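Weekly structure sync - notes
Attendees: PM, LS, DV (DV joined late)
Agenda: review two folding runs queued last week.

Item 1: First target. Sequence and structure tokens pasted below for the record.
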Amino acid sequence: MLLGEPLRVGRHELRNRVVSPPMERNYGTADGRLTGLYTDYLRARAAGGAALVFTEATFVRADGRGRSRQLGAHGEHVIPGLRALAEAVHAEGALLGVELNHAGRVADPAVSGFQPVAPSPVPFRGRRPRELGTAEIAEIVAAFGAAARRCARAGVDVLEVHGAHGYLIHQFLSPRTNRRTDRYADPVLFLAEVLDRVRREAPAATVFLRLSAFEGVPEGLGVEETLALTGRLPLDLVDLLDISAGCYEAGEWMVQPGEVPHGVLAPYAARFRTLGKPIGVAGRITTGAAAEEVLRSGPADLVAVGRGQHADPEWTKTVLAGSDPRPCIGCNQGCIDALHTQQPIWCLANPATGRPATAARPGPRRTVVVVGAGIAGLAAARAAALAGDDVTVLEAEAVIGGEWRLAASLPAKPEFGRLLDWYAAEMGRLAVRVRLSTRADDETIAALAPDVVVLATGAAGLLPPIPGATGDRVVDLREWLRHPRPVADGEVVTVWGADRAGVAVADAAATAGHRVLLLASGGELAPEAGPREKVLMVRRLTENPAVEIRFGTTLEAIDGERLLLGHDGRRRWLVSPGPVVVSQGTYEPVRTLNAFG
């Protein structure tokens, strides 16, 4: 595989073409230092075969900080932790990279304690930044240089200058955020000065430059404009162009949802070949096949596999061995939207990600019975089998997956099925017996003589009593997904409940061509879901003329084809023929295992 071939870039040789790129993780300390969790995380990706592992967007000055647990290179106190990280990564045969950044106008003053600064006072999310004076711009250039010098002293191999995603450097590049009339009205001047200072302060380092090929918003930079600006830079100071896309106002391009094709940014990266520099590219490269195709078709020399390695730290070794790693499902929940909570990020596909490593369980081999082959039951069965236990899974349905399989049927979750396929393969590899169409009664369990019984049967949908509801017109969304009935012409699919599940089902019904009425008790669609998870679903629903969304509305009663809706203390009837799909949460049903429960 071309993916496994070494490549020399700048001052260093990479052992293969896989990079674990900069990803913010909320694993740092309040003063910007590394933690043991962070070191263990990157060490695992290095041990998993990646050629180069990056920290994250690492702030060079305090007013450029965006998150409370973000890493910094802004003071001497960070050097010991970086040095220990470099030693750990090098011991695993990989190189260490740090991405140098200043957030500019998108910095959060509640986190940094400073008013945000920017090339021009263009507001962001209602916050007006302070325009930088020319003397202060020189100070920030010096801050980039000082941060580079600290990293070099700590043994960092690769420094990436972050010129993408709407951060400060990108703000100077873009005409929508740079409205200056002095010499920094030249959009490339600030970045050119930063590159020069970084190179002078860390002459032994390899230097990457990260760019958004396009911003993805009106009046923002497109590919042609970005390419022209890049061509004006002193590229002799740059060893590789690392191509991404988007900005905070178009976050779906920064981190793409699972609906987006693999390798989506490769065609844009190919445009930068004309500049004569090695190219790296990100953008939904989560499978070995996608990574190999990007390299062989020519757009890039290195592939950034961020979320793929977040889901499976041994992604590189597994792919190079010709096997399938645990898949990233593109959910954007634990790795991206969790950042906004200021809590450590996690992974929906891998429950071990973001947790401290645990030692192997000592003791004799046990007999374990797992009741339920949903995603939790399969994860428990795999963990027990890896610990050396003899494992049997009992599943009442004829297929594995439970509610996860229902989610995998939705248009917004096309990658979810890949995780079930992987678990099915793991059950076979680990000799876990999966007995389908088998109810876990006392007799069945007793015959297996287990030492441990794991109950992983999940919850049932909550179906509140609705006056006037008769027949099968009102149905919990899980039952609707299991046994959808035809929707006749003229009928409307009413979805009562606009949580993430209700929104996803409404989106599926609308995608299938049905008219949809979505009743939301609050004022937001899927309020518990983050912006990157729901962005495409919400956009489709709000832009579809066949979809009606009623906020602040409850369902009070049903009378034939009429629904009694409550809104602002008033109630009125609405004619809405067709099924009523309910998404009102779940409850834990009473389950009895007399001998083992």
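Item 2: Second target, run right after the first with the same settings.
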Amino acid sequence: MPPSEHDQYHDAEPRMNGDDEEAQLLSRPREQLEFEDTSPLRNATRPRGLCSGLVPRSPHINTIPPILPTLQNAPLRLYNRLCPTRSSKAATFVLCLSLWALAFVLLLKSQLPIQDGAGRTVINLDCVDTLWRRNNECGLDGVDCRPFSGDSFAFRCPAKCRDVQVLNPHAVGPINVNYRPLVVGDKVYRGDSFICASAIHAGIISDADGGCGQLARVADHQQFPSTSRHGIKSVSFDSYFPLSFSFSMDDDLRCAKDPRQALLLVSLFFTCILSLLSSTSLIFFPIFTLIFAHVSFASDPPSASVRNTSVLPDHVSMFVKRILPAYFIVTVLYWTVIRRTLKGLQAPVEKTVLWLGGFWFGALSNYTFDWIPISRLTAHDLEQQPGAKLALAIIILFLVCIFAQQVYSFWLEGRLPRYLGLYAIFLIGIFICLVIPGLSLRLHHYILALLLLPGTSMQTRPSLIYQGILLGLFVNGVARWDFDSVLQTTDALRADGAFDSALPTLLQPFIRSQEGGLSAAFQWRDPPAGMHGISVLVNDVERDRAFFTDDKVNSFVWERDADLDLPEYFRFGYVKDGRALDYTKAGTLFANGTWIMPSSSKG
């Protein structure tokens, strides 16, 4: 382990009379306070005028008097006796990191390529992978998502896919699915269902460990019932869809479990050892590296290439890409914020529980904060996600209480004016970002952490917790999502969400019986200026795309067989610049020729 701060600044070897270095540090609180940068407080004059109340008459540096210091420092004293020299401490430190790296690599072997019983390479899937892409992205009649049948492949899913949800409305017949797993059917699943969540629903894999299975494409299938299995309630669809799939087990397929639980125990153990057996704040950097690697490869790894044979190359590439700029940022944070909080702290157990525990709590935010009904901090998501506004109000109230507590602590140290000035600059910057035309402000995980971390630069127990959580949020945000821009265009924020575009106004269709079935002719009012064509979805499959200027199109004719005893769902949307915009809600055509007109509001 690296030498303690006492070793660095006093260059003292352990005494033969049994006196302990750490005990000496604890017995000299005045020397410890003088070691902190308190000289500006002794020599500074109190500001006059309006700022006179922002600095107390006798400012002092906050320190944490350890609870049961003898007990807390017992592991460190034992370590100093077993490794009395700097070289032995350094060797122990290298050995500790080497053991962690070895265990980490051995556990990650489960992500290497494997083959099924037929000798075919198993495909790695992400939690949101599907066979059928959203709405019209499969082309007319689904041509870009073929084959519909006669194909099967072995797949491997990661753990924790059960609670992955769609974040924008997804059409499933007459309804729009949002903020729930996209699983349509039971045993046989609609082609746009999440494959991994469907495999959990079918009992092929487990949510805790992930797993492998065989997927077989099934051609045109009818009637997808809704059932609740293994923690997932599937969505029902009472009509037909051109692509569906089912699962089967392969007894010859040996698929290792997802290693994230074992890796968490390994990483927790070694970071706790590093925290308990070091009194220097420089131990922050190896702890940061271990937690960043854990998020990047195990607890919340970024999405890899679609359907690859191994996710490791992608994860290694993204890890190296993201950790280098992250190191630069945390180095600045260390010398300006973190060092002041951890330096000279003589309470290793409290540091481990409060600061390191908070660090892990924030880094595992995809689990620890998953219960909060806020997926993305955007105006669109806050409007459409149930409970988001109330949750945000509670969070803001909680942050205001924390802010008041931290302001008081800064006031006691006489540093309140400079930090109020710093946050005034932050607020001015946020205001400038808000008024830039054509761009929207997006407060990502790492942005929130960077904004709030300066407010934890003091040695108090609350600051240990807050700083740890914010550092964890920074790590999770960067390792998972990269340094995404704080200013984003409307298209980037929308992703697969609504365009808020104009919708076609349908007229009453002309429906007539004919030999072999029904014929329905649909017409619409004149489109607004700027619209180039119209797209028609039938049962969530694009069946027609016509352009006004080329074809002089003003109607769409649909024919259905007489033996089809299922409803069909129609949605209409304008086409502009080569892409379909928002679709109407679903209108329903029944087997007896009855038509229910859709609402003009968005689907």
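Discussion on item 2: The first strand starts at residue 123 and ends at 124.
Action: LS to circulate a short write-up before next sync.
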